[in-house]
Each structure stands twice: as C-alpha cells, then as structure tokens.
Design a protein that fits this description.
Blueprint lengths: L2 E6 L1 E3 L5 E8 L4 E10 L6 E7 L4 E3 L7 E7 L2 E6 L8 E11 L2 E6 L3 E5 L2
Parallel strand pairs: 2-11
Antiparallel strand pairs: 1-3, 3-8, 4-5, 4-9, 5-6, 7-8, 9-10, 9-11
C-alpha cells in the first residue's frame, strides 16, 4: 500500500509564505512524477505544479514566479509558496505516479488547507 503524507499549510496573511511537504511511503519501485493540485470551495481541482524524476517542472500560470516545486529525494516533494494571495486559498493535494510491483498508479494525499487572509 502506498501512502502520501502531506505536511505544512495553515493560515497566512497576503504577501506571506508557506511551505508544503509530501512524503511517499510503502512498496514503491519508482516515482516518475510528483506534484501539487488544489481545490478551492465550489471549484474544480486544478494543477499547481509538477516535477518529474529528472527535475523538469511545470507550473500553473497563476503561480509562476511565486511558487517553487522541488524533489528533495526520490520520495519527497516540496512546494515553496511565496507572495501568497487570497485566491491561493484552497485545499492542496499531493499527487504521485508510482511504479510498484510492475504497475503504475496515481495516488493522492488527503489534502492540507492553505488559507490566505488578513
């Protein structure tokens, strides 16, 4: 069984910064891509940023220049969020495509709340 455990998040004022971490555990051969998605109340879940095992990253236009995603090791991904805006308020979900026992499957974390408000 593979699990993604998120940490970080919380309440921050506009213009502030937060960091989110996600660690994968379980029977894992490799993880090709890890990323973060978010879902605000009443809206669909959307991509925030992804990073592949080779290090290439991809960002939503709304967070480019403010957020940075990094792979700290093969099983851990970090999202640094700077210059946060109220519209960044959402539940943030970790996502990973995991290869295990010959199969590739997408896993999700349980989500962590990020609230940006004065």
């Amino acid at each position: 069984q593979v699990q993604l455990l998120e940490s970080g998040g919380g309440l921050v004022q506009p213009g502030g910064a937060l960091g989110l971490s996600c660690v994968a555990s379980g029977s894992i051969s490799s993880i090709t891509i890890m990323g973060w998605y978010r879902q605000a109340p009443g809206k669909q879940r959307e991509l925030v940023a992804t990073i592949i095992s080779g290090g290439s990253s991809n960002y939503a236009d709304s967070v480019k220049g403010r957020f940075t995603i990094s792979r700290e090791n093969a099983r851990k991904v970090y999202l640094q969020m700077n210059s946060l805006k109220p519209e960044d308020t959402a539940v943030y979900y970790c996502n990973a495509d995991v290869s295990s026992r010959g199969y590739v499957k997408t896993y999700w974390g349980q989500g962590t709340q990020v609230s940006v408000s004065s």
